Amino acid sequence: MSAEAQIPCGNRAVRLGRKSTVIPASPSQPQQCKLCPSDLQMLCCDYIQKGLLYQMPFADQHFISVAELLKKSLSEALVYFYPLAGRLRTCSDGVVYIDCNDAGVDLIEASAPDVDIQEITEAEVGPVVRQLFALDGASNLNGHFLPLLVVQVTKLRDGIFIGFSINHAVLDGTSLWHFINSWADLCRGTATVSHPPLHSRCFDDIKGSRVVLSLPKTQAIEKFSPPALSEKIFHFSKETIYKLKNRANQKNPKSPIIISSFQALSAHIWQAITRARGLPPDEPTTFKLAVNCRHRLNPPLPYSYFGNAIQIVSTTVTAGELLACDIGSAAGLLHRIISPHRDGNIRGELQKYKQRPTVVKLDRTIRDNSVMMGSSPRFPMYDNDFGWGRPVGVRSGWANKFDGKMSSYPEREGGGGVDVEICLMPAFMAALETDPHLLFP
Known about the structure:
This protein is α+β, with helices and mostly antiparallel strands. It has 11 helices and 16 strands. The model has no long low-confidence stretch (mean pLDDT 90).
């Protein structure tokens, strides 16, 4: 048990209590899961930090039993998702792999008695949210020393928050929510997981890509000092999204392409952020998006493929060109990088990486004036019932945040609306909030 610690958070505090190491309920067969190029490119990014908020009026009375139930079911889940209980290793020849050695994951119990659900669910994301996650500032490279998964369960005044910090070199968003969904099912009493994970790491034909890594020498985490950013959740109703999609497709009635709801919404926000930044007309702006490749390959990978099966696509235009576009033309820019990204393009990118494997820090790949969309409204975030009902909110930590980073979530009610988390410099956020066309196009 760790000594109780206290993390200041404004005039409040998140108090850290007991830390437990959880191992699989039954021993895993020792093996090495070699990372593929899509995994390796994440090594210098931060751990993923996503969390779920639950209403629990009597959290004080039930917290100990809740924590014990979570630990027991997590141990059962790790039997299926055993790579998460391992550690990263690098061979002398540069091949990076997961040593499935059952070293375990950490579960931290914490309390924030002065924080309630309303504060966490406010549209303007406050600093307290950052304190609900462990491994703040950890790079995925730290997975050579640190657990690949750390869960912080925080007791609030009227609920609990479960914060997941998980190594992005081990999995992507699809696999993250697959794991959390499976864990929630087991916690609720399900005998087995409905979709056992596929651990073949068969995203490509490369048996082991060799990269030159600058490994951390100690277990200490170099704390990331974030710039002054404002972070806010914007809700786009189903009706608003339908209006954007309809308008985008009406602008090009003779065009053979069909603009999707997500493409129309993304283009609309890109234009709004570009207006808020007040960029000169000749200044370039870039839109980046992480594309799930599972269903785009031939043959396709199953949903249960466990690992990273994503690639980044992007398009760049000048601010003047983007803002001169109608919504159909702006969304068409995104359609032209997303729609053709199929088997041939995907394997072509993998071949390029094989010829020149590199690991680049995230902040060196993000250009000024860029925006990047992460996560997905298709992820089953609100389907995670651990036994005390569906979540009342989803939030993310500070990991991988920068000016222009966006994350999209499904609305809690499931009616087709989308919540978009946007990070911007404070002056740009102030301009975005006063844009009359953002939420009511």
